[in-house]
Amino acid sequence: MKKQQRALIISYLGFIVLGLNDGMLGIAWPGIRNTFGRSNESLGILLGGFTTGYIVASLLNGTLIKRYGLATSLIASTLMMGLGSWLFSLSTGFAILIAFAASMGAGMALLDAGANTYAAANFRPRLLNWMHACFAVGTMCGTALMTATLNNNFEWRVGFMIAGSIYLMMLLPYLLTRKDWQIDNFTNATEKSSDITPLDTLRQPVVLLLLLVFLLYVSLEIGFGNWIFTILTESRGISTVTAGTWVSLYWGSFAIGRIVLGFIETNVVRVIRYSIAGIFFGLLIWWLNPGEWANFVGLAIIGFSNASVFPGLVALTPALVGNAHTPNAIGFQLAASGIGAAVIPGIAGLFADWSTLEIIPLFFLFVAATLFGTHEILARKQLSPPTVE
Predict the structure, then answer these.
(1) DSSP code for 223
(2) What angle do CA 45, 46, 51 make, to 5 degrees?
(3) HSE of 145 in the Cβ direction (CA atoms, 13 Å)?
(4) Using an 8 Å Cβ cutoff, are 147 and 159 in contact?
(5) What stretch of H or E contains 267?
(6) CATH of the domain at 174
(7) Are 141 and 23 in contact (CB under 8 A)?
(8) Which residues face 266 on adjacent strands?
(9) pLDDT of residue 62
(10) CB neighbourhood size of 370 (10 A)
């Protein structure tokens, strides 16, 4: 088996593992909240812990890869995720929980940024889409794992113990393939432009606009996803098992969308535009909630529409910023994503505490509208976008 084929398979497995936490956290949140006697707005604080570690590691992505190599970064990511998840499950106080969430977040960022950097250099857009589909599969598995944990009368802690063990198992494939993780395209570009610093990358106006798009989008994908279970069970009277199944539907339609997209060759910018419109339409149905069917249909539309946005933006990055800037840019993009996944859902939680949980879909409708406008401005910067093969 060729080294890129091995790296592709391991990247797919890595992204399945990466998705577990995002599927588990929303299901576990009511239990975590009750364990530590917190309010809904504290979800934003907990997500802030994940985000702090995520941002720091993401911003260092380019520097760490240049200094230590991609393989070392990926190995470190699995250690931080695995040990962090176990310690997270054993936390005795909310402040301690946040500290270990930061460790998990840093590990996730190293895996996310490292795999995306390698994929952008070595994989066609089709393969990149399927790699991101694996993240959605992992998130769906995480949802099922935590739902089964709670449904069998175990604490949320047990789910994170299981996930931590799975994270640590990913050490083996990365250790066995250390020599496979080369990113020659970006390494050569960086050698030719050795004076490029992270600050140089940030000075490009298109990078700042790209970061805003990532921030807004991920707040919808992950942030809204973390609130679904709470809204269904505590505001709409849906049972735990049914709500968990519908959250799995959300991530399942997300995975299906990414798999389907891999078979379609089309204009990336156009696909992202239509996808954001679909997210808005699905959120509108979910907010209006004309009947129980709207929970099912709205989540399916939102999940499927989410599918193309993140991989599409990653695929556009080299064309927008150049290969030499891409490792830094991807790190910044993931840092912005982490901020969006924590801050905006936290704000939604504040609104819910001031009003009701039903204000959250309306809040995310506004976020989707803002995302659409921001992406349209970015689209004008890309005159000849690549296609999704």
Answers:
(1) I
(2) 90
(3) 25
(4) no
(5) strand 266-267
(6) 1.20.1250.20
(7) yes
(8) 388
(9) 72
(10) 13
How far is the C-alpha of 177 from the C-alpha of 9, rounded, in Å?
Answer: 11
Task: Assess if residue 389 is contained within a domain.
Answer: no
The one-letter amino acid code at 202 reads: L
DSSP-based three-state secondary structure for 322:
coil
Per-residue confidence (pLDDT) for residue 386, from 0 to 100: 40
- CA–CA gap between residue 124 and residue 130 (Å, rounded): 10
- Three-class SS state of 266: strand
- Contacts with 224 (C-beta within 8 Å, 6 or more apart), sequence order: 283, 302, 345, 360, 361, 364
| pLDDT for res 186 | 52
C-alpha to C-alpha distance for 317 and 311, rounded to whole angstroms: 10
Q: What residue ranges of the chain have pLDDT lower than 50?
A: 189-194, 383-389
Contact 23, 159 (CB under 8 A): no
Helices (H), 193-325: 198-202, 205-218, 225-234, 240-261, 268-288, 292-306, 309-321
Nearest to 327 by CA among 212, 124, 220, 191: 191
Count of Cβ atoms closer than 10 Å to residue 297 Cβ = 15
The type of residue at 81 is: M
What pLDDT sits at residue 241?
85
Whole-angstrom Cα distance, residue 288 to residue 301?
A: 14
Domain count, the chain: 1
* 248 lies in some domain: yes
| Helix, strand, coil fractions of the chain, as percent rounded to 5 | 85, 0, 15
Residue 327 lies in a domain: yes
pLDDT on residue 187: 52
Task: Report d(CA 273, CA 69) in Å as an integer.
Answer: 36
- Within a domain: 17: yes
Q: Which residue has the tokens 């393969």?
A: 127
Q: Distance from first CA to last CA of the chain, Å, rounded?
A: 23
Q: Using CA atoms, how far apart are residues 216 and 372, in angstroms rounded to an integer?
A: 9
Query: H/E element holding 343?
Result: helix 326-354
Question: Residue 294 sits in which domain range?
Answer: 3-384
C-alpha to C-alpha distance for 320 and 316, rounded to whole angstroms: 6
Dist CA 200 CA 361 (whole Å): 38
Question: Of 321, 105, 326, 358, which Cα lies nearest the Cα of 231?
Answer: 358
